[in-house]
Design goal:
Blueprint lengths: L1 H25 L2 H4 L7 H14 L6 H5 L1 H29 L6 E5 L5 H7 L4 E6 L2 H14 L4 E4 L5 H4 L7 E5 L7 H14 L5 E8 L5 E2 L5 E2 L6 H7 L19 H7 L5 H8 L6 E5 L4 H14 L3 H12 L11 E7 L2
Parallel strand pairs: 1-2, 1-4, 2-3, 4-5
Antiparallel strand pairs: 5-9, 6-7, 8-9
């Protein structure tokens, strides 16, 4: 057993090293030169801020577990690294980020905000969670970048930012955490805010059409279940705390939404118009060496099943953009 664990750790380290090597080769020098680093003291300050705000009510045993340590590492380092090496070059390929006016919906604890702001973007970060925003502000301060933050539900954005003009409006891993009505209202209102030539994007949002929920329940076909059944069926999940959801009395379907439910092209078609008429200009999975290598790794990890399933979706929906056949929605739409 110990030998097996040792081999698995070596495997993870080799993958991590390969990802870093690929990432360093995939980022243009014009972007890489703007990366802002923090010293050990500032890193510890950020870690304490995360502990106080994000992990305040989490048991110490979880933070000391392997899962907890990975979660903290993601918050401290990996999310920012991913955004810098994958998302930022992708966005910049469509429209220069420097001096761009960017509305980031779902800024969370600010990893993506830092990645955008250090490239010279004028960022307005929106999130519904005050604790996450406290971390985002501290993270930006430690990295020496500026951003404006607004605490509100995405449905309030159009009224709070009435008359504002943005080059990018980005839903960053956030649509999946909204109720259906919140999604429809916020997509429609933000789409209406954009001027022709500017870009609406969705990033890291699980695709409802996919057969496996790797985001929330870690169960097959979970996205397809009606909310009432999904709520009760959460008890079969092996995910910490999520499987206790059915114990809530009375049943709280909004809480289920906040954990995360899949999104598909249907919401976009209801709010933006026929999906075939939308100018979908790019899909992150097919962009650059880093995106492609990440995608290939996912295919290998699934032993080819993901690729087979993707082909099935393409057969069923031959006129739909391939971006909607991936496990996660990562796409940009240009307003015409």
């Amino acid at each position: 057993m110990c030998f097996y664990i040792h081999i698995m750790n070596i495997h993870r380290n080799l993958i991590s090293l390969a990802e870093k090597t690929i990432a360093n080769f995939s980022v243009p020098k014009s972007i890489k030169k703007n990366f802002t680093e923090i010293n050990n003291d500032k890193a510890l300050e950020l870690k304490e801020c995360l502990r106080y705000n994000l992990y305040r009510d989490v048991e110490t045993s979880f933070l000391e577990s392997e899962e907890g340590k990975r979660d903290m590492e993601n918050q401290l380092i990996k999310r920012l690294d991913y955004d810098r090496h994958s998302v930022i070059p992708w966005l910049d390929s469509a429209k220069p980020i420097k001096n761009a006016r960017i509305l980031e919906i779902g800024c969370g604890t600010g990893s993506s905000t830092v990645a955008l702001a250090e490239q010279g973007a004028n960022v307005v970060g929106v999130d519904v969670d005050a604790d996450s925003l406290a971390v985002a502000k501290k993270r930006c301060e430690l990295h020496g970048v500026n951003a404006q933050f607004i605490e509100c539900n995405a449905t309030e954005i159009a009224s709070k930012l009435s008359g504002s003009d943005f080059d990018f409006i980005i839903f960053f891993a956030s649509l999946e955490h909204m109720t259906i009505q919140e999604r429809l209202i916020s997509i429609k209102k933000t789409w209406e805010m954009l001027k022709p030539g500017n870009i609406w994007a969705v990033i890291d949002t699980p695709n409802r059409l996919w057969y496996y929920d790797s985001h929330t329940s870690l169960l097959p076909f979970y996205y397809w279940l009606p909310d009432d059944i999904a709520y009760d069926y959460a008890s079969f999940s092996k995910r910490y705390e999520f499987n206790e959801l059915p114990d809530s009395v009375p049943k709280d379907l909004v809480k289920l939404s906040r954990w995360g439910r899949g999104v598909s092209y249907h919401e976009l078609e209801l709010t933006m118009g026929p999906i075939e008429s939308l100018d979908i200009i790019s899909n992150l999975s097919d962009f650059g060496i880093y995106g492609k290598c990440q995608y290939i790794y996912e295919l290998l990890a699934s032993k080819g099943l993901n690729r087979k399933y993707e082909k099935i979706l393409k057969k069923i929906m031959p006129n739909i953009n391939p971006a909607f056949t991936k496990p996660y929605l990562n796409l940009m739409i240009r307003k015409n």
